[in-house]
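Narrative summary of target 7.
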Amino acid sequence: MTGQVRGVQLARLLGQWHALPGRRRSPDYAALAGTVRGLLADGRLPLGVRLPAERELAEALRISRTTVTAAYRQLRETGHLASRRGAGSWTMLPGNHRVASTGLWTPLDDREMLDLGVAALAAPPQLLSAARAATEDLPRYLSGAGYHPTGIVELREAVADTYTARGLPTSADQIMVTSGTQHALDLVLRLALTPGGNVLVESPTYPNALAALAGRRARIATHGLAADAGWEPDLLLGSLRQTRPKLAYLIPEFQNPTGHLMPASLRERVVAAAHAVGTDLIIDESFVDLPMDGTELPPPVATYDRHSRVISIGGMSKPYWGGLRIGWVRASAPQVQRLAAVRVGVDMASPVLDQLVAVHLLADADAIVADRRVQLAVQRDALLGALAHRLPEWRVTVPRGGVTLWAELDGPVSSALARAAEEVGVRLAPGPRFGLDGTLERFLRLPFTLPAADLVEAVGRIAAIRYDLDRAAGQRWREPAVIA
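Modeled conformation, tokenized:
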């Protein structure tokens, strides 16, 4: 088991679990069980966690214990809960589900869906030629053991050149190649954060970053982003000065999920404030290659760093392909060596062949990324048009880059909408996945990484479900599938 959730904590996660008119006609125990299943499906409630005792949860929700007892019984019947007298009840994986590559749950018989839960593009056509070229380069590496903890020199030089081209002089010694951006974050946390350390993050933020911090048992403080304006400078700097965190994790380029771009003036002030209070900054640059509409990018955050306080992470997943597990860390040369020492106890090194593929893709970066930007702009505009036509009550700030919209809904229905959308073949990532303790129910992340026609079709289905939530005479509950 991974721990225990208290009654008040689960009550916050459950949110308005029986507030929608369509659900009031269902038994409360069925609504409660269905909402717990939804929390399990999208990863907000992990496997192996012990749930509160029936009486404790009933008191936290201010409902009868009979209702909680019936809900727990239904969860046991569907395979989502195991109970043992005297030991309590804990969450489990149903026999007809599996854990997907995202770490979330999906049915074994998962059918074709319009997946708006994954903010990533299919591979570019240039990937095949890059892979063929990489196999031709591979023989010169075969005489060695193949372990390169910091990465092969060709790729480190290529990544360093991308930083230099952005106005941040960088050498290969300052680059460590990792198995994706998430792996880069994990290694940095292993090096820089002791269990229980304080960390400041944006709210909303990237869910897998929250998962990585939870794995380090970090104490998380948040800086709330305005839906239309993003960071409030005085509040962000005040949070740094007041909480004095060991680390701050920020996404300044087309923030995930809001799409905001941090201005240069704030970048400089954040670095200065971090140095003053002894905070190291982890800067996630996953979307830095994807500006649109002629948007000019501010200098990298590390440009303003004079004291090795900024550690930048990035990778190939967003501009190129998620299946190519190549990421990197940019830091001072001594920090890179310390990271390599940490890495040896984790996974030794990234695959040489994948790194060679990355070298060839970066050599053709101008053409590949230019095509991606055009593709994303078309798909973004198609999604915006469909939302304006079918769901005009929703508010969306148009992002100038990245791959996601952050929609403010017409009510706190994000989780309920995600569960209902599964019934019509659309997978969604509800707002609370991007925050803490069940907040952000009025928001939904909508990536525009699918073809335009699929995005328009998905919005049509979502609109029908949204209206049905308020009109429905009853609610049909089933085991929810994954939200990736």
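Confidence is low (pLDDT under 50) at residues 472-484.
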